Amino acid sequence: MKNSLFRNIALMAPLAALAQPAFAAQTSLSLAAIGNVADARVPEQVNQGSGVTVDTDNRLGWGIGALVSTQGSTLIGLETGALLINRSFQYGSDSFNFTQSQLNLQIPLLARVNFGQMFSLGAGPFISMPVGPVNNRFTVGSSSANFNVDHDITELGVQAAASFGLPVAANTTAFIEARYTYGLKDLTNNTKNYANTNDLSTLVGVRITL
Fold first, then answer.
1. Rounded to whole angstroms, how far apart are CA atoms 201 and 175?
2. Which of 42, 56, 129, 172 is the most buried (most CB within 10 A)?
């Protein structure tokens, strides 16, 4: 009887292994450097109040990010974390030039769809909060000055991401990602006269399976 029991266990073991999910849940940590191009947020009174034609110039801002993702299958995952980005742009005319930048903390929550191990798409909401004051530099002719204005606006919006990864070591993948961020809260009628976020970002970093 004992031999029969062992024989049955030996026969059932391969079937039990086949019945297990093909991909166990796993968590990964992504660390990235960020290059961000922010949509210029031109105060309405500059255009409408003075009648001056203003040329905008979106500038490259930098940032860092840490993201945590959890996958319950080979196809679907969920990602969140923190992206600290210095959003920067300038605008001006023949008589003046204005440069503005500010650190923003973005917290996204993206659903991820994975196409194999190398490519994935993500989409979901985000919240963005200003960190510190808005830094401005205003130049008229040959005179310039630094000054700050208050900016205490929390934005809600959506993000979309496309990521390409390449394994470089055990449990480690190098990746590059394009991310689009759009704020749903229209701030152009606010007394601070800022338009909603409309940014393109590139993330370059590593993803480590924990």
1. 14
2. 42
